[in-house]
Structures are given as structure tokens and as C-alpha cells.
Amino acid sequence: MMSVAVVGKPNSGKSLLFNRLTGLNQKVTNFPGITVEVKKGERNGVTFYDFPGFYSFSAITQDEVISVEKFHESLVEKKVSVILCILDATQLSSSLRMGLEVRHQAARTATPIIFAANMIDELENPQSIDWSGLRDQLGAPLVPISAKTGQGYNELLETIGRPVDPPKESPLAFFNEATELSARFGPKREDASSRTSFWDRVFLSPLWGLVSFVFIMTILFQAVFTLAVPFMDSIEMLVSFSANLAVSYIPNGVFRDFIVDAFFGGIGAFLVFVPQIFFLTFIIGLLEDSGYLARAAILCHRPLRFFGLSGKSFIPMLTGHACAIPAVYAARMIDSPRKRFITLLIIPLMGCSARLPVYAFLIAAIIPQTTYFGGLVGLQGLALFGMYLFGIFVALGVSWLLSRSSRLKVQDIPFILEMPPYRIPHWQPLVVRSMQSILQFIKRAGGIIFVATISIWVLGYFPDGNLDNSYLSHLGHAIQPILAPLDLDWKYGVAILTSFLAREVFVGTLGTLFEIENAEENFSGLLQNVQNAGLSFASGMALLVFYAIALQCASTFAILKSEMHSYKGPTLMVIAYGLLAFAAAWITYVIIAA
Q1: Is pTM beyond 0.85 here?
Q2: Angle at the Cα of 272 from the Cα atoms of 277 and 262, rounded to 5 degrees
Q3: Burial profile 372-383: b = 16 or more Cβ within 10 angstroms, e = fewer
Q4: Bridge-partner residues for 220, per DSSP?
Q5: Widest CA span of the chain, in angstroms?
Q6: pLDDT digits over 489-516, tens only?
Q7: Which of the listed CATH numbers 3.40.50.20, 3.40.50.620, 3.40.50.300, 2.40.50.100 matches domain 2-191?
Q8: Domain ranges within the chain, ordered by starting residue
Q9: 574 φ/ψ angles, rounded to the nearest 5 degrees
Q10: Is 141 in contact with 159 (CB distance < 8 Å)?
């Protein structure tokens, strides 16, 4: 079977082209020892490998180093038969520098290479580029395309299907040759430069840049609530309908109680928050693909530098709001080992998608659905934004202390960032990325939640089917004194304990516990049951603060151990953040309840 390695710079439209080539028939491949995500897809008997973007084979960031190593390994071991190198037609000179390095590696390993000059739809005059002359100088097929509009796509497929000779060896003066080729065959000036300059004057302005940043982030988190509500309501209706339907066919007994209490009460309460995770991932991807995130990194560099971080720390910090695991990997893009290490330590404080069900549930329980400006802004959305800001402020405080620690002897190097042009994102890769994120989220957390839900139901049901006399009740009452200062009963103590497997288990656990207690009255109304039980505003806020700080994710612990090459660092983080979380929760309760 023919195999094609798809490579290119970040923001070159590589992922969009890969999605067009493979459709939804793709998955994350498993190269031995690889820790960065390489996607694999098939089309008409051709296998495509989408390698993470890198700027040069002289890679600096850890993520790029691994990507380059695995790409080179795939060439040497003949895992791929053709290289498809994506060039950005709007930034031809810098793309050619990387493309010439790829051609050099192809010549060394006798691997055929095909160039695809992407984004020609963004050129003011695509014919201003001498494609024929550039093709001759590269000594390899070159196809102008637009992955967004499909222009040149069929020609590219035909080129991939034809036999291609490996390129010949060439001099190693990549920078000089790329500059010369761009000057001879490229446009006289880079396209869209005036548009880029205008928007940079807005987004990089000390005043309007800050105003736009706060506005965009506020709308982002409000949209997570607003856009997801119809889908969440639909899931709740489906869960409720399924529960009632199941009950009508299942006779009374242990199995019926299990289906109602454990399955629909626990897992159903978890699935209802999946739409919010989808929209959070989609909107972050929208900002990234538009080119805004790079500007936000520039804007954030000066204030982040005060806290011992880099402007590039903004990217993994923001990615951490989807999931800490890709955020840990994203930290490899930070050139400075010192700033990368500090960023790794604070990533668990970002409001990841696992916290989102907890935040959304508690906010809905204690914050009214009051809205302003025609529903554009609401108290619940502001509260959610506030929780994410709180996590960021705690992270900045921790990084400030760490950066001034004399014991942190790690190398530091300057901040460098290439700015992509502004683009209108294409919806397809964003939807695919968002779908993959929720599928991975369900896959990663679903098994843990199912086991936890079953275990909690068994402990809460036996020995006699009475929750108050159950094994779980005895365990909860044993730890009740710890939560007494927060005015929380034993059910919340059990939910907190189980959520150290994964934060989102908190909602599933409460769902199981409250449904066991109220199964005959309400199959899916966890929120109503909790409100009827009298969760106070002070206790709810204390729980929110606790979950904003505590490190409660086994997967994050494992990834941090892999990155730090030791159990010591992650273990100390779990202990330190746990103690800090409880102290902050107690202070919050005391202040509000006073």
C-alpha cells in the first residue's frame, strides 16, 4: 500500500488538506515511542500520515524535535513512500526554507517528494507566481492548491497517483536559496500585508488589544453556556426518556435499581456536559486558526514575563482550558527550559474540560439564570469566566513565586515567535478536531466514570438497599468532620474522594448518590435534587474554589511524570495543590458565610 507523509510549517493549512484527503477516515497513529500526535488516514488505498508542523530540521522546541526525529525515522526505515510537503503560498520565502530542508532529506533517503503550494485563494494574483519556473528549480512536482476551496485538488490527487522520481542532492544553503527562489518566481510582495498591518494595530495595541482580548475571552466563555444549552437540554430529555422507557420494561429488583440509579443517574449526568466541551474546543480552534492566538501570545508576553513565563506559555495555558494533556505537550513549544518547567507546574491550574462539568453543575445550582443586554451576557456565563480567571490568577501567583526561587536552577533563553497571517478559519477541521476532543474525552474518562459509578452504586446500595445504612454511608460519615468547616454533608465528601480519579467523576458520583435517594421521584434531575437538599451559596463557592486548584486527574499525573521523568514532581504537586485548595475553599466559605 502506498503511504504519504504530509509535512509543513504550522499554520500552512496542512490539517485542512489532510482532512480533505482523508475525510473522517482518520485516527491517531501509534509510532513506537512517539508522544506527539500523528494522524493517520486512508483514501483509495493510499495511507496518509499527518506529522505535526515544524519550522526547521534544526528544531528548538521539544515538540518539533520529536516530530522531526520521527519524520526522519519514517524516511530511513521506508515507512512512507512519498513526501507531500505543504508550502504557504502567501509566505513563500519562509515556507521554501523549510521545503528545501525537506527536499534535502528526501534526496538523502531517495524518497520522492511532491510540493503543494497551499492558500492560493488568498493571493491577490495567483498568476504573479511563476509556478513553472519554481517547479523546474525545485526539481519536483509542484501543485498550486487551495485546501479551503478545492482549487487544484484533483490535480494534486493525480500527481500523488503518478510515479515520481526522488530529487537530486542540492547545496545546504537553504536560507539563501529560498530567498532567491522567492525573489525570482514569487510575488513582488507578500499578499494581505495591509490587512495584517491594520488588524495588528488593533490587536497588538496596548489599549485596544487589551480591551479586545478581554471582550473575546468573555464572549468565548459565555458562548460555551449559550450555544451548548439546546444540546444539553436534548441530552437530558433523551436520558429521561430512556430511563422511563427502561423502567417500563424492567421488573422491580436489583437490576432495575442499577439501570436507573447507576447508569442513568451517574453516566447520564456526565454526558450532559459533552456539548460544552465541544464548543470550548471549537472556539479555541477558531481563535488559533484565525491567527489571533499568536497575537494574544505577543500581547501577553510582557505581563507573563513579570511572572517568570513566556508569551508562548499563553498557548499551553489556553490549551489547558480544553485538556491538561495536550497542554503539557504544547509546552514543548516554549524554547526556554526554565519557562517550560514553570509552565508545566501551572498547567493543572487551568480550567480544563474535566472541570467544566463541575463548574457548570455548581454554577447552575447556586447562580440564578439572570441575563443582560438581550441575553448576550448572563450571570452564569460571567461566573464561569470568573472561575477560569481565578485559576489563571492562582497560576500566575504560583509562577511568580517559582520564578523567584533560587532553587529553580533551569536554563533560560529569549522569546521568539513567528506570526501567521490573519485567515478566515474553515469549519471542517474545527468540527473534526472538536469531535475528536469529545470522543477522546469520553474514551479517556468514560471507563473511569463507569467503574467509579458501579463501585459507588454497589457501596451505596448494599447491604440492604438503604443508602443511610450502606457501606458508602459509613465511609462518608467517617470523613464528614473534614468537610464540616465547609458545611458539606457526607455525599460531597464521597464525591470529592472519587473525583481524584478524574474531576468529572464528581458529577457522576453525586448523580448516583442523589438518584439512589430519589430514584422513584426523579430519574435525571440531579440539579433539582441538589438544590432541594439545600446546597448553600457559600458551600457551593467553596467547592468551586476547591476544584479550581486541586490536582485531581490520574491522566495528568501520568503525563507530568513522563515529561518530568520522575514521580517526585507530580506527587508534590498533588499534595501541595490539594492543601492549597482546601485552605482557599475554607477561606472562601468563611468570608461569604460571615
Answers
A1: no
A2: 130
A3: eeeeebbebbbb
A4: none
A5: 84
A6: 888 888 888 787 678 778 777 877 776 5
A7: 3.40.50.300
A8: 2-191, 431-593
A9: -60, -45
A10: yes
